[in-house]
Amino acid sequence: MVRTGAQLLWESLVRQGVTTVFGYPGGAILPAYDAMLDYPIHHVLVRHEQSAAHMADGYARASGQVGVVIATSGPGATNLVTGIATAMMDSSPLVCITGQVASHVLGTDAFQELDIVGITIPVTKHNCLVRRATDIPAAIDNAFRIASFGRPGPVLVDITKDAQQASVDWNEPLAPLTFERRPTRRLPPSDVDGALALIRNARQPVILAGRGVMLSDAHEQLREFAERTNTPVAMTLLGIGGLPASHPLNLGMMGMHGEAWVNQAIQQADLLLAFGMRFDDRVTGTPATYAPLARKIHAELDPSEVNKIIPVDIALVGDLADTLDQLLERLEPIEHALWLGHISALKGHAAVKDIQHLPDAGHLYAAHVIHDIWRMTEGRAVVATDVGQHQMWEAQYYHHELPRSLITSGGLGTMGFGFPAALGAKFARPEAEVWAIVGDGGFQMTQAELATAAQEQVKVNIAVINNGFLGMVRQWQEFFYGRRYSSTPINCPDLCALAAAHGLGGVRIDTRAEVESAVRYAQQAKETVVLDFRVDQEDTVYPMVPAGAALDAMIRRAEPTALVETASDPG
Amino acid sequence: MHALIVASARNTLHALNRVVSLLRGRNFHVESMAVTRSERSEVTRLAIVVDATRTRPERVASCLDNLEEVWSVRRVERSEVVQREAALIKFIEHSVPDELVFAVVGSGAARVIERSGGAAILEIVGSPEEVDDAIGSLPPVSILEIARLGQLVMVRGKQQTTVATPPV
What we know:
Chain A is of the alpha/beta class. Helices cover about 35% and strands about 15% of the residues of chain A. The termini of chain B are far apart. The chains are: A alpha/beta, B alpha+beta.
């Protein structure tokens, strides 16, 4: 049967189970867009290719499936790069398909020709240029296998226009394809023995749970391990949701803006069990002073992460769920009552400064807003954030009960990520209540996707934490640059008018008393709603571990004006 | 202290580009990398010498192993391999006493393969130390050009360093 390369492309995608792609057409990808109309694919037309990559990323993180992006050559492809890099840093599986100029003009600086394969080498798990129609099915199959196997990541497939246009005889069946996503292997018995000995002998252990918990679907094993060994669990930013926030062994987030007791527990621990995390510098503070008393076990899929930042005593290299299963086979119940009691005492000191105890003086604080959104969604919404102060407040005050419910750019720290990622998450999980919690700076980077939301009639709720500053940069200027606010005050358009211009809902909120009704309005509206929360302009994220400091050398809010260091809800 | 890593990769510029990009991007301290053909047309051999005082060779190996088009990676000890390096050295003839040239050639690792226009080209094939010694023995002002190939590394005995069959 004769097929064009473009038809082979879509047939290959359909057999991978793809139903939704995010993209933007252009000259070099026109044959593919033309053929797409004949396949059961929903194409989401974005307003900028970077957003397409973020949407596909949000789709992937919310669903565990591969997100698919499509764009044209040249500027279309380069606009993807930030989104691809974001996915690479956070191990998110994407397949990015770009059109390329015809093969006979490659290398001639043809119109919209650019070496996107060369450009994306450092930010992809793999990439390739396809020049022949017959190579397209194998390239797409490979892309999906590589993107999702082992440690996931983005793969870019660049296809020349003539390869899309060429007609070929293709008689091989394009049946649904399955492949193993996880490498499974028995751990060396000596490693398991060594790890079990450290676990049994520990008196003050802490589990550090990272994104690997989600990628490996190891939530149940993590809970079982924590409960059986009575070991408290500290979460990395991307690990949030790996254990329900309401679980008594869940300490909360660690690191630069982690709760004080979490960082103190890590620094006092005699054993760290690092499960699917990579000792990012935002987690460790200065490595030389990190957890000085602790032996360390690192359960990690990617051997290149082992001993990269923090030397460990035992490395358990493999899929996390598989690793935990192997440990649990031989692990008996262990008590750590004294240690847990000690951590509770650490926690109690901060808890008295809880947001709930602060009288409403008419100010609106981001912490209030996020606390109320958490309360009204019962911690079960999918929340995508941007990057900055609001991101940290979200991690502190929105207590996630479910895995894959916090979607945020951890490694690259990409502003503009939150809103498009929320849209992508909604396409992946239409039944879920999806919120984008963003800052006024980041939202303005990708607010053009309001038009996409309107055109697609897709419903998400957008909470803009609007403080008139690039808040986290301002905070660093406050602490480390003598309050010289260079280029951080930022204007914002009338977001309600902006929403209305797109046929969407918008509400401005200036006081805490208005928060609940606004959130309820957004929840009940059928269309996407923008909530413009005008929060205190110079509020600061506390605690804060300054760059280069030890993890427990935190800057903390002065007592008399203490706002919050925890957001546990007494009610 | 140097560490040796041998790898086999798909014999394409793209694969080589990814390897070089990784080594650069990860800030690995690489002393040399020799890229050579192998017994299989689709497989390129890489011999990478890492400054182990500044870069952990295990991490270089595991990062390389993550690349789709790198099919095998192995850290090898000097004791288990034969190392050879080739170099061409062009020098100004009248700046080097004949007895010095004879001494270098007499070591067995070098020979003069070209003399013209007042310059000579010396070819050296030997251990990296022999190449270093030969270069070091010539007066620096006499040397016009040096081209060093990088280290060729092969494990002793019947064991193969390149993969027998690349993955499909």
